[in-house]
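Check out one such.
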Amino acid sequence: MPSKHCSAALGLASPSELCQQLQAQLPFFPTISWVERTDSTNGDLMSLARSGNGQLIRPWLLGAHFQDRGRGRAGRTWVNSNGSHLMFSCAFDVFLPARQLATLSPLAGVAATEALRSFLPIQDVPKLSMKWPNDLQWHQAKLAGILTEVTRASTSPLSNDHHVVIIGIGINLNDARALSQSLNRNVADWAEIVAEVPTLKDITAAELTSRIAKAWYQALNEVTAHGFQDLVQRYKKVDGLKDQHLNILDNNQVVLAGIGSGINEQGQLVIRQGNQSHAISVGEVSVRPFDPDAAP
């Protein structure tokens, strides 16, 4: 369970209280639910979208204090404990051609990073960044992970462009030290941010959730209307990999090494090797120590 300090700082409420707070802050979400426990919030919303049962008007939001089968990217298990993570998923209608759907993943990361940055004093904003394709970082340590999944809208079988996108996020609230040890990598949590930025101490879990949900809602409305024309510039402002020496891994094998150089209009990571650039769609990104004698 979270410490008393964390609970007070985040206003971590019971599922029913949290649900009521969110309904007041997100009146344009017809369906908002928060449960004590479920297998996977992404999985639950995906099943509901495919079944066509229940409330058909979206967006939907589902949160849980604990997930028995929480999932991360590439089929990984999302490690969580009751009270130590803020976890929720949203379902939205999108009207985009299939070839553009993969770009929704980095878009979700950019929007969430912008949303959390909006809580920070201007001098602290650069400390919160995004690691492609959609991890959120505090001082280059992982604060949150996002899983974006898409299915065809069951209510519009004749429309090839109508899809439902499910976006789930897990934010570490506390216990980062234990996670860092168990995962063998740097992990950050919201309690650490509050300790460094005391002005955030009164921000509640409902406020964090609603700010991110609104950002996703607005971002998806904008791309439906105008496309992804501003994504490259938006990513540039939150890019945590810019000018970093990177390894791209596939099955733990380095398949490409180079310098992080932003993303392209398709949301692919751009890696620079000398005078050549490579666009990456999949793979694990590892930041490597700078070696002045190594060729970029």
Residues 4-238 form a domain with the BirA Bifunctional Protein; domain 2 fold (CATH 3.30.930.10). DSSP finds eight helices and twelve strands in the chain. The longest helix spans residues 205-226. The first strand starts at residue 31 and ends at 38.
